Description:
Layout: H1 5-16, H2 39-42, H3 46-59, H4 71-76, E1 81-83, H5 95-98, H6 113-133, H7 142-167, E2 170-171, E3 186-187, H8 189-206, H9 218-231, H10 235-248, H11 267-271, H12 274-278, E4 285-289, H13 303-307, H14 340-344, E5 351-353, H15 355-360, E6 379-381, H16 390-394, H17 412-418, E7 421-423, H18 424-427, E8 444-448, H19 449-463, H20 466-480, H21 492-503, H22 509-523, H23 557-565, H24 593-598
Antiparallel strand pairs: 1-5, 2-3, 4-8, 6-7
Amino acid sequence: MKISKIYKKTLIGASILTAVFSSCSDSWLKPEPLSFFSPESAFVDANGLMAGLTAAERNMRHEYFGDGAPILTEMIQSDVAVEGTTDKSGPQIDMDISLLPDANLNSENTTKVKWYWDEGYSGVKYANIIISRIDDANFKNEEEYNQVLGAAYFQRAYRYYKLTHQFGDIPYIDWEIKRPLVDSYSYDKWGIFARMKKDLEFAYQWVPDKVDRGRTSKGACGILLMKYCLLLGDYDQAIKIGNEIVAAHPLMTQRFTANKNKANTNLMHDLHSVEAKLDMTNTEGLMYVVAYPDIQGSATIQTMRNAVPFWVAAAIKTPDGKTGTSVNVASGETNPEMDLNKSYGRGIGRLRTSWYMSHNIWGEKEKQDLRGIYNRDSWKHTSDLKYNHPDLKKNNNSWYGKNIEKPVAMAVEDTIRSWYDWPHYKIFVPDPLATTWVGGETPWYIYRSAEAWLLLAEAYYWKGDLPSAASAINPVRIRAGADPLIASEINIGTILDERARELYYEENRHNELVRISYIYAKTGKACEVFGGRTYKLDNFSGPGGTNSNIKQAGYNFWWDWVNSRNNFYNKGVKHKWAEYKISVHHVLWPIPATEISLNTQGVINQNIGYPGAEKNVPPLKVPETGTVMGPEGSTR
């Protein structure tokens, strides 16, 4: 696997600079002592500053990689999936219990809510160091200066986008921290949105479009800027940027990797293969996170472990009661379909697709959709796998090689974890260096121009221009083989359905639902999906107060949508450990209790609906110019 020499150098530089930056597991409040590789010695020119930014870009990878990756929390707190770990208490199933400020909020066995808080502020810190020190460095010209500053702005805006959509009003830090922060205050998120939009306008102007894999690109700045524009009602600017992105980055509509010669594959397998994400002729990818086998600090993405059903579970037995499956292949077996490990990946079912994701969004107009349930090369079900246990072959059992059948008495816990459909084309990542295939090293899309098309459709929707919205959504649908939509079919539901079809395991699904919820509440626009229902900002998280686990429609779009689409939450689905529940206030996550208690000289507000919110004070306003923490009068 060939890797850009430039990117190798920058990754190595990032590894060195971990001595400068604290790790993502360290508290964002904690100052770091200067080392030999201090900011003073490293950040003297564009190369040094860009190496520092590489550390921030590299850390974006941690959201997607590893067992119980944080991105699972984003999907589980939405319509597309639920927690599939049903063999213990603790996982995020009953959110009334799992999402409390003093719960364990950072574990692959519970939730990664606090990971997002910690990593978000770590990324803000990295970006702020570059922004604060850029005037002390030497540059060849103004263009080089602006490119570095723009990339740093993107990194900060990227973290604040997640933080404000996960936690609402939060501390706003806009300069390098050189002391422990114990006097922070929450800031109004709408002011943060406005400042990040301004920063991204600068970044979109100056950051180059052609960059190495893993670097910040102009297209990435444009996608994020579009989202801030939608939040703030600047739909025309979002449309202008979106049209520029899709013109510069056409969708991949023809097969283009070595996979095109493989049986049982299609264009979607090409687009989401490791090869496609390495292919520099791929015009669709706008930004990636990367991982390579020969780079220090690389990692496996483990998509198959997380998202493929637990097919090797003890519950998977033949109808005559024998153990049905094995990671190992029977001696002498030559049929590749019998190697379930290498054909599908060894899953444990952490991420269980909802019926909405696996069935409801695939209708008559998606019968030919390469991304969908009707295409059995793209989507798989446990019943597509075959009984392969070596003992079955050894004993000449008649069930060997036949498709798995669901045991009549399969327990609820096993049904949830082991018996469902999943998008094989998206999740399958070969792991040739491992015996057990859980998902290997690969770049992973952060943004693609397909999302720019869908954001265009959404911008036109908010403007009320439904014919143009249909024209924007249809290139993505037609590329996949789905029938085009007409204007009368467009509403926020059809747009969200299309995002689910196209961006599963890529987008932060919870974030995007919250963004749309913010827009509905800010604008008061009637939501056609729910019979013209309107929303407000002043009761966005519900009424709050003691025992505020409200499960009633009309407070925010997120709860109404997830509750109506996800077939698990608040439907009485339970197993011996927990029942699947969400409440209105879970639209925003709890501020971790430790962050509030350590902030002894300030006030970080708790979100409405959680214990401690009764101590809240009005959030501060972000100034339109200058900085909160930096030099007076600074425009950065």
